[in-house]
């Protein structure tokens, strides 16, 4: 869906997925199969202006490797738009206190959705800074109480945690979004 929207807005889009059948726009959008856990920058160094990695990094075995590979693929001045489930929400902290697993990273999420790598905002910043990126923007979207809405006690706990959190309010929603930039002048 994002590939289609970007193409409709006039962007030159190339899509990738590990499972070819997951992509439904063959013929309309250029596509290649790729394992993002491997060296996907080989032969693609400094070839892209922008990368969108939406709801991907939590499925990968080594997020730091992914960050380094994205850095290699981007042209100087290029950007990487990233989104992932936000561990830094009051609901996620409450779930961790109760179950010792974060929101979107419980056993069912692992088995059904393949969410294998929970990353906090601090960890993401470290991954991408160590790869050479600067963070140009960050925010969050979605319901800040997510899955705890159906449990009055968990909702109460999440709201209490929310009152104590130091993280700015704009970073406490369900999905964390960040825009990273590779230093240099766009070519």
Task: Outline the structure in words.
The chain is of the alpha/beta class and 187 residues long. The protein is 32% helix and 21% strand. It contains 6 helices and 6 strands, in the order H-E-E-E-H-E-H-H-H-E-H-E. Strands 3-4-6-5 form a 4-stranded mixed sheet. A two-stranded parallel ribbon has the order 1-2. Strand 3 (48-54), helix 2 (63-73) and strand 4 (74-85) form a beta-alpha-beta unit. Helix 2 crosses helix 5 (121-131) and helix 3 packs across helix 6 (152-164). 27% of the residues are buried. The model has no long low-confidence stretch (mean pLDDT 95).
Q: Describe the biggest sheet?
A: 4 strands, mixed
User: Radius of gyration, rounded?
Assistant: 18 Å
Mean pLDDT across residues: 95
Number of strands: 6
Question: In terms of per-residue confidence, which ranges show pLDDT below 50 for 5 or more consecutive residues?
Answer: none
Number of helices: 6
Q: Give the strand order, joined by hyphens, for the main sheet.
A: 3-4-6-5
- Please write the string of helix (H) and strand (E) elements: HEEEHEHHHEHE
Report the span from N to C terminus: 28 Å
Strand content: 15-25%
